[in-house]
Amino acid sequence: MRGPALRSGSRPGNDRADSVFREALRRLPGAQKSAVGAPAYSRFINRKAGGYLAAAAYPAGFTPNQVTTISAAFTFGGILALAAVPPSRTLGVIVALALLLGYALDSADGQLARLRGGGNPAGEWLDHIVDSAKIPTLHLAVLLSTFRFGDTASAWLLVPLGFAVTESVLFFAMILNDQLRRARSNPAAALSTNSTTPGITKSLLVAPTDYGVLCLCFILLGDRIPFIAVYTMLFTAHFCFACLALPKWFREMRALCPPESGR
After folding, report:
1. Residues 44-51: contacts with CB within 8 Å, 24+ apart?
2. Alpha-carbon Rg for the chain in angstroms
3. What pLDDT digit, counting tens, does each position of 149-196 carry?
4. For 184-232, what is each residue's pLDDT tens digit?
5. Residue 1 neighbours by CB under 8 Å, 6+ apart
């Protein structure tokens, strides 16, 4: 009795949407950019979450820019709550979930664009503008929350300030690296990989620099000392990574210069 009842209550529109959703999930692996070497949370969790969201948005008729806008709403809603509401364990969970959902949707917009046949410069521009805004404002919200509601030594306020600068520089450098490589070298070479194992090892090593890990640390927001300790360790990891990566990237950019440039 149960089987026929379910079939008689089904709607053709729902069946079609389910079919398109499953087809979108099937097509996603072939439309992905390489994630080898990306930090572990972004590579193994956020991309998959973004894929399911992109597959759900595809039959619903959402555009990539609409998904980017929804991502920004969750992200900046979490940032605003962080800055305006006194820290608590409940607030920490809300902020972490808002930031993580915003991050998953940030991955979904690009995957949705590839499902729809490819992105465009306007969409890429909007995505990068939202990212470039959320990075410093998140850390400035930490600074403001600590200044308004915390009893931490004032010298510690230099940590979120330094975090905002460091992460903004790293984000801009990575975007610029990608653009310069596209302009000066074969794009296919940047996506090629010879082995999966080194990529996984690197993903685990750079996990502390992952934006997703930063989002997770806000779960500790209601416990001031553990939050400050973890947040400071993540800043230290970002700063050390920047000290190692920026000279390396500069040498790579010099290698793209023609010999006669003299730079």
Report:
1. 44/203, 45/212, 46/103, 46/104, 46/107, 46/212, 47/107, 47/111, 49/104, 49/107, 49/108, 50/104, 50/105, 50/106, 50/107, 50/108, 50/110, 50/111, 51/25, 51/107, 51/108, 51/111
2. 21
3. 988 888 999 999 999 999 999 999 999 998 898 888 655 444 444 444
4. 865 544 444 444 445 788 888 899 999 999 999 999 999 999 999 999 9
5. none
